[in-house]
Each structure stands twice: as structure tokens, then as C-alpha cells.
Amino acid sequence: xxxxxxxxxxxxxxxxxxxxxxxxxxxxxxxxxxxxxxxxxxxxxxxxxxxxxxxxxxxxxxxxxxxxxxxxxxxxxxxxxxxxxxxxxxxxxxxxxxxxxxxxxxxxxxxxxxxxxxxxxxxxxxxxxxxxxxxxxxxxxxxxxxxxxxxxxxxxxxxxxxxxxxxxxxxxxxxxxxxxxxxxxxxxxxxxxxxxxxxxxxxxxxxxxxxxxxxxxxxxxxxxxxxxxxxxxxxxxxxxxxxxxxxxxxxxxxxxxxxxxxxxxxxxxxxxxxxxxxxxxxxxxxxxxxxxxxxxxxxxxxxxxxxxxxxxxxxxxxxxxxxxxx
Length: 326
Prior knowledge:
Layout: E1 19-25, H1 47-52, H2 59-69, E2 74-79, E3 83-91, E4 108-111, E5 119-123, H3 127-140, E6 143-147, H4 150-156, E7 163-167, H5 175-184, E8 193-198, H6 203-212, E9 216-219, H7 224-235, E10 239-241, H8 249-252, H9 258-266, H10 270-281, H11 285-292, H12 300-311, H13 315-324
Parallel strand pairs: 5-6, 5-7, 7-8, 8-9
Antiparallel strand pairs: 1-3, 2-3, 4-10
Helix pairs in contact: 4-5, 10-11, 10-13, 11-12
């Protein structure tokens, strides 16, 4: 018996879906080759990560799972003393356009006049975290002081802050110890409210923070709106909100060309343009956003374009535009 097998020409394999490739590079201390395998293990941290006392060791494992769900993977290369390069790819397909319904939330722009002075102490060993909080809170109208660790926070209590935003993991003295000592101080006529700021979202750690004397917890990263809402609840605050201006969807979604942008910008008053240029030269997105409130509703596309530039810290582009119309 002869068995014959008839073969057909091999069909070409189906084309692979298109991918987007991202690279994120830093100039930090780098990662030892022997520790790279720890990066994607849950709760695993390198020596550099443990020394920084930041995070829980979950960020990269979770990120890798998300990337794999999208058909890709994450890879890392690093040199000690030079930095690290993270590369990941995700598959994509062209989506059908759909109309998205958005709900505008009123933006908080200040404290109600009857509030009086409201003192807040920001405690965090990371200077960039303190800068972000101080900038946000002072723009709303709070009186703000800052401290790098729990020991400095205790010394600042002579200022009698009504509320303390306390990072829990810090060198010299952590937030747990500082909170217990501040709450145990019977010499203070009115103990401050202490809100824990933490990257740890687990319920057990939250209970530990509350047992240490914290009145509430906010997990990092957090939305500014959430922080202001929590402050309002604990301090019984009344805020001033930016009025919501009704503009046509067509006007607000209009994408301006450079020529259109310069033309519309040239119709604004010269002193206003000079103020925007000065604010951009100071790298002050807050001042720029305040100036945008003066743009009339019929020029909403101008406000949106400049707001996007300010929110993405494109101050040089704003300065170039203002120079073109002066």
C-alpha cells in the first residue's frame, strides 16, 4: 500500500498587526545587571529603589501586564552611573471615530473671602513633590510652609498649621513617628489635621496610618481636584469656582493652523499679549491660565490652543507666537 500525501503551496503567514514602539530613557544612577531581573517581580526593588524609599515595587510588574495585554512587552538596558533605557511596544489598529460626551467640571480658582487665613504644612523629602503641592495650594490662596522630614515638621508646628500633608516614608524621621509625636503634644491648643500622602494603597497600611494618628489618607498619584475636595471636607472650606462659559462645540474643538493662531492672537490687546509673553518667559503656567480667562468666548479655540501649550510646558512656543504679533 502506497500512501501519497498531496501538498499545496504554503500560504504566506498573515501580516503582523502594526506596533508602536516607545523608549523612555533617564540619566539616573542606573541598575546593576544582576538586579534587572528584580524589576518585573511584584514587590521586588533594586538597591537604588530601596535607598530612595519610594514606591512599593509594583509599578513595573503592573505596567508589563498592561503592555502584554496590548500584545507587546517591556525590555530594559542599563549602565551603572549612566542611566537606564526602557523600551516597550504595543499593537494597534485604526479605530472608528465616535463622538465622546464630556461633562465639564468647574475649576477651583480660590478660597471664599470669608475663609480667612488657612495654614497648611507640606512634609515630603522629595523636593519636586513639595514644589508641586506648594505651587497648587498657594495659587488657590492657602498659606503654605514646607518640611523635608518628620523632624522638621515637628519644628514647624510652632507656626500652628491647621492641616499637615504628611508623606509617610522619609529619612531622618518618617511620617508615622512624626504624626504620633505631633498628636501626643498636649501643649498645642488645637491639634492639626494630618492627611497621609502615600504610594501604598493597601488597606492594612491604611489602618496603620490611621492608628498612628492620621485623620485621612490620599494615595499617590492623586488628582488635584481630589486633594482640594479632601481639604475642603476636613477644614469646612468654601471655594470660588471658575465660571463655565458656554461655547459652541465646533469653536472649542477647532484646531488652529499657525497662521490662524497668529491672526486671532493679534486681535487681543497689546498689553495682554505682553503679559502672556512675560508669563511664558517665567515658565508660569499658572499666570498664563489666569490670563486666558480674559479671552472672549468667540475666541475659545485660541484659549484652548494656548492652554494646551501651557499645560505641556511649551513656553518657548508661546513666546515665539507673542513675538510674532508684537
